[in-house]
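Entry:
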Amino acid sequence: MKILRGVYTAYGSLVFAMLFALLLPLFLIPILFPRQHKLVGILNRLWARLLFFFIGVPLRLVYRTPLDPKKQYIFCSNHFSYLDIPAMGLIPHNAIFVGKSGIETVPVFGWMYGKLHITVDRKKMRSRYTSLVRSMDAIDQGKNLVIFPEGGIVTEKGPEMGPFKDGAVRIAVEKQIPIVPVTIPYNWIILPPDQFLLRWHPLHVIFHEPLETTGLTAKDTDALKQKLFSIIDTELKQHQGK
């Protein structure tokens, strides 16, 4: 079984690399012309859909309520697998990611990621502050954000989430824009966090009803963070027995 999964993983990695090479010239457009930032979301969706199509992973996107295409959102999901990044690339709005600075060490891909998205070294206070400022600036520029509020893959075995950081809710409250809780229930099965071996399984991405922040203040951030956690965690538990 591990041999087959190894072959499947090698094939999946090759597909990922080939798609990256093909799309890189298009990703250079928003890098060279920042006002074309909407292309980032469009290209992310294209890349993600092609990736999951060629590795044979069926997609199911569930919307618990329609999302307003004219509204800005911060999308927050659980994070148990490296596949969560392309999975969140499927979101319907054009968005940029706020993620770990370590990804910038990946040759070429890391350079592109650092140019188009916001990176943070959570061990350094200055980096955390800078990423917070850049995130708020991105909102002011009309961008949507994707944030993994756990701060990375912090548990070796899904589907138990780690505690949420404050960043996403602080930005949402400060800028008075909604947070969309997102549950990704099966990626820890498809690509487990403790072993880089693919396993075939359908992929689900569930978009919950947005949490409104209009009128909220800094004193409401803890309650909002807990509500965000609870919505995602409840959904995860509902899928555990399936």
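Helices lie at 2-32, 38-54, 84-88, 109-116, 125-140, 167-175, 187-190, 221-240.
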